[in-house]
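Practice set, problem 2.
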Amino acid sequence: MDKNEAKKLLLAYRDDLSEVDNAEVNKALKMADEDPELKTFLAQEQAFDRAFTQKLNEIEPPSGLLDRILAEAPDQTATAPTQSEPQSAKIIWWQHPGTWSAAACVLALIALTAVFTQNNSNTTNNRADLALMHNFAQAAALHSPTIQHMDFQNNDIGEIGTYLAKNNSPRPQDLPENMDQLLGMGCLTYTWQDNPVGVICLKGEKVYNLYVANRGGIDLKNDHPSPFYKQFGNYSTALWTTGDLIYVLTVEGKEEDLSPLL
């Protein structure tokens, strides 16, 4: 099996399946575990599938559209043949009930098409955003276990932010309230794809690392205020945006170690 064949199989794979009873798909998944290009391809496709499903579930046709269309239809009892009319009398096309049902379906389809058109650019941007966010979260997860010292040690988050700003690194703003329970340890500066990143080390029940970068530098198009969770090996990550900043919170653990803080 070559990479192109593996990609075709991976396109049909859904990560919410607990088991896959297909030898070829399992072979493609194994290749993705061992091949960085396929691993990235699979992660991007899964991220897009989740985002697309979420957007699709949010789409609703205009309320009462079908009822309004049917309300305008003529009273069918008025066209019923009388004793003096032959039973085979022609029914005018616009008086046929099937016509109005078809019209209702067409107009509903037009309404849905309008919604899809309105969201098309957002869907395209979301797909690109999710790929970039995945890559940034993965970079943070790989960087976290390599941290051996901090450029600046202080328990005060404000002082840590001041240090980062003086060293041309983004500083956190408007963090979730539950993160107030974490104590500052210090910080360091980091660069990812030529973008300055501020890294704040925090301590609670576990040690957490908060990565802060400018959204514009990473070229995100849309807001993502709700956190995305992704596991990379032993490290779990949560990623979200606030204003002009993008955040990744990492911990050696699972999603449940992060979600209560966000």
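Problem 2, part (b): a different protein.
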Amino acid sequence: MSVRKVFLSLIGLALAALLNEGICFPPDALALVSAKEKGPPVETPGVDEENKGSKITIELEKKTAPQAVGKEREPGAPKPSGQPEKARAESFDDLKDPFESQLDSLPQLKDPFERFNRGMYKVNETLLDYVLDPLARGYVRIVPEEGRVAVKNAFANASAPVGFLGSLAQGDVGKTVKVVGRLLINSTVGVGGLFDVARDHFGLDPVNEDFDQALGSYGIPAGPYIVLPFFGPSTARHAIGRAVDSLVNPTSYFAPFAASAGSTLGETMNAYSFNLDAKKDLDESALDPYESVKHFYYGRRQSLIKE
């Protein structure tokens, strides 16, 4: 076998390997190589044998350049699937659930009602997309951030009895006293809680406690995961905690059901107005938003119990 045939065979093997890796050459580029195999190249004046080989290489690169899209495939990355490069992840790490690491050291959260929960999750997401999100975006255009912060402070001040009960049930005297002090200061000097004077001028930071956290602090298990209508992610223990918290919420006694429901919607809309793009970011980054919400919720609740 001549040296020329060996050289052409090596070129053929290299092309086959490239094609196997998913790199496609245009027909005219492949024809350029096959023409070399069929017969001697046409002599070009002033170009020696070495330059002719370089010219063929350059022509191949020019003809194949439009087919290259995006970055070169990294070692160990999955082979291209034929879809546009932007639709493919750069590496396997991009496909990981962004909230997965939060559950590494936590007890497993059981989800025996997953079929029901996923259905309710879709219902809640529909309400969020078509009711809460449009209302919140209109609310943001009308009410400046300072006004929304004042509303947030007022709702937090009104829920002080929930934090008081949660702290007292855990036997945490320091937090219990802090809740009482914040309530007195913000309800008077803070104009009914519109301004967080206790935090800004007295160094009394908000206390985030509730009855679910009190139950968890005594080692009571969370129970199965449940997605509640309107309220969203929960557990059996948290559902009980919500019910107890509602008993000490002032709006349960001094306002009719319609007013109480409206107050809850207002509080939810005001809180959502500070995180309008959170759902969009979650949908774009998570492979399964349902699982990501469940993981994030559970990790957040467990971290609050440990505080």
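Answer key, part (b): Strands lie at 225-228, 232-235. The first helix runs from residue 3 to 20.
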